Amino acid sequence: MKQILGIVVLLMALTIGLQAQTTVSFNFSKAAQPVSGWINVVGDPSTGVRTATDVSSGMSISSIATANWSSFFGTSAFDGEGPSNGTFFPAGVMVNEWLQYDGSLAAYNAAVPQLKISGLDTTHTYTLRMAGSSTSPLSQNPTRYTIAGRTVSSYIDVNNTNNTANGATFNPIAPDVNGNIFIYVNTASGSQAAGISGVQVITETLTHYPPVVMITSPQNNDILAEGGNVVIKANATEQNGVVTKVEFFADGNKLGEALSAPYTYTWVNPDAGHYTITAKATDYVGFTSSMSINISIEPLDGFWSMSGNINANADSNFLGTVDTNRLAFRTNNVERMSILKDGSVGIGTKDTYGYKLAVNGTAIFTKVRIKTAGTWPDYVFKKGYKLRELPDLERYIAEHKHLPGIASESEVGRKGFDMGDHQKVLLEKVEELTLYLIEENKKLKEQNERLLQQQREIDELKRLIKKK
Fold first, then answer.
1. Whole-angstrom distance between the N-terminal and C-terminal Cα of the chain?
2. Is the peptide bond before 218 cis (omega within 30 degrees of 0)?
3. Is pLDDT of 311 > 70?
4. Which pLDDT tens digit goes with each residue over 86-141?
5. How far apart, in whole angstroms, are the C-alpha atoms of residue 130 and residue 9?
6. Domains of the chain: which residue ranges?
7. Which CATH number fits domain 15-203: 3.40.50.2300, 3.40.50.300, 3.40.50.1980, 2.60.120.430?
8. How confident is the model at residue 308, as a pLDDT?
9. Rounded to whole angstroms, how far apart are CA atoms 380 and 405?
């Protein structure tokens, strides 16, 4: 059994190792130039869009558009012009290439990439390797490579003229939200052309999670006083990487950023108003996440401190109205309670129907005390209290469909009921029921006594008969 488990663990380790080396390789040429282990992308990118797909991974590469390639007198694909002893990539790859000739498109332009890699997993990052090589008199020293996914990488320059062993490696690169990575193949100062012979895309096995950001101060829906600074604080973490910055925004306008923890920004003396504050965290490969809260900056002439007030004379400083308008209370910008001009309180309703308190919804209490203005029904137990006869009670229930003294269903539907009076009447009925039970119990005992006496007489008669 242990041997089997050992084999399983070994196979899992080998599988993980193989996954870590998952590589898709593309080589570029004018005519078909197959290389073992490589996907040949054939044709001239300046005369037609050239694409190829790795079936096993679903990953594709495309030359995007003919207008994105600056050709050398009508062509951007050359075979057999590179050294035959390449080592950065196999010689069969580095001997051919696609190129950009020095011109308006050959310098870096964010709107004009030369290659697009698509079908990538947006939850992973990738390593990209690329190189070009040429023995042409056109200088490719340097060729400038730039990568754009979620973010634009720093460029890497490679001297491609007579190149055999040099190339550019970008790591880690995160695809954009559509699963694409763009490659720019550009000239730089001193170069007449820029070339690329092959691209390798290596998938990293770890799932990449976006950073987590949380605004810790101020709190959502805080009301702050005008005339001061607002210190915005945030926590930001990354599960398998590093947070590179946290940016702070007010209503979409960037206030500033913090490049390291603690992530803090001081917003100096904002104007009175309502604002949406956003903190946006970015990690080392460009994954982002955001959190927003709402705050209000109140003008000083109408501000009541949410952190407490001092010397608050209730006769002159108060929360409320000085006219006949009601006072409304809100949460989540929805009115929950109001105090009407007559002092009555409505919870979930603006109409108290003449009552001091009206609640539209359910309520829960741990203790309720009701003071009744009337008498408590202990009079039921006093001497002389007359109970209805049960037949009379039965006739009343059959006719009215409720107990005597209890409000009917239709009446309660129209008017509701007084809880104190209702409790009093319910107790009266319980006490009357108790008297009924006591009376019935007396009758039952008398019946049992008579039955017992009759049984004794029967037993005596049986004895006498048997004696005869």
1. 95
2. yes
3. no
4. 999 999 999 999 999 998 788 999 999 999 999 999 999 999 999 999 999 999 99
5. 35
6. 15-203, 212-302, 327-359, 377-453
7. 2.60.120.430
8. 61
9. 14
Confidence of residue 316 (pLDDT cuts 50, 70, 90): low
| E-only strand ranges, 238-342 | 243-250, 253-258, 263-267, 273-283, 288-298, 327-331, 334-339
Q: How far, in Å, CA of 82 to CA of 298, rounded?
A: 71
- Is the pLDDT confidence value at 182 over 80? yes
Q: What is the number of residues in the chain?
A: 468
Tell me the pairing of strands 263-267 and 230-237.
antiparallel
**CB within 8 A of 60, min separation 6: which ones?**
51, 52, 53, 54, 117, 118, 119
Q: Which residues contact 244 (CB under 8 A, 6 or more apart)?
A: 259, 282, 283, 284
Q: Which of 68-82, 332-346, 417-431 has the lowest mean pLDDT?
A: 417-431
Residue 428 and residue 377 in contact, taking contact as beta carbons nearer than 8 Å? yes
Beta strands in 332-441 (DSSP E): 334-339, 345-347, 357-359
- Establish how many alpha carbons lie within 13 A of residue 377's alpha carbon, considering only the half-sphere containing its beta carbon: 17
Options 3.40.50.300, 2.60.40.10, 1.20.1300.10, 2.40.128.110; CATH for 212-302 is 2.60.40.10
pLDDT of 4: 44
Residue 1: the pLDDT is 41
Helix (H, G, I), strand (E, B) or coil at 432: helix
Residues 6+ apart with CB under 8 A from 5: none
